[in-house]
Design brief:
Helix content is about 75%, strand content about 0%. By secondary structure, the chain is mostly helical.
Length: about 160
């Protein structure tokens, strides 16, 4: 756990910021939660999100009310998984990261699809649209997540271009 903390905070000698402090170290200093508590909060929130998404997929096939339940649980799962990183870096930093130029479009699409999924399931009562917005949620969330991995988006685009041609 200490090695993970050192690597993530830039203290491993692999090059942190100019003053030697990493993102997580800064969050550590600004947060009132201990490192272990934040890691537990992250894991619980992320696993709860994954559980909600998996449960939603299982409940999708229940006749009559499966799709609205799926839409709610899947949306809650995505929100929970997204919120889990707030435990690591804090809510303000998370919002700044979400609105960064490289992630702004994916964030906007994801948040709009979260709302539209619930509107399609409950207000419009259109199952096809709700399912479409859930798929778009997944794609936007994946594209958002890939933005944190260097060159991952480029690799995915190249893979799709090779597959298409």
């Amino acid at each position: 756990m200490d090695k993970l903390k050192q690597v993530l905070s830039g203290q491993d000698g692999g090059g942190g910021g100019a003053d030697g402090s990493g993102i997580l170290e800064t969050a550590n200093q600004a947060s009132t939660l201990a490192w272990g508590t934040r890691m537990k909060g992250f894991l619980i929130c992320f696993l709860l999100g994954a559980f909600c998404s998996i449960l939603a997929t299982c409940l999708l096939w229940i006749p009559g009310f499966g799709l609205p339940v799926f839409a709610v649980l899947y949306t809650l799962g995505n929100v929970s998984a997204l919120a889990s990183t707030m435990f690591l870096i804090g809510p303000l930093r998370q919002l700044k990261n979400m609105c960064a130029k490289v992630r702004a479009l994916a964030t906007a699409v994801m948040l709009v699809c979260l709302v539209l999924t619930l509107c399609a399931a409950f207000w419009w009562k259109n199952n096809g649209l709700a399912l479409l917005f859930c798929v778009l949620q997944f794609l936007a969330f994946t594209w958002y997540g890939l933005s944190y991995i260097p060159f991952a988006r480029d690799a995915v685009l190249k893979l799709f271009s090779v597959c298409v041609s």
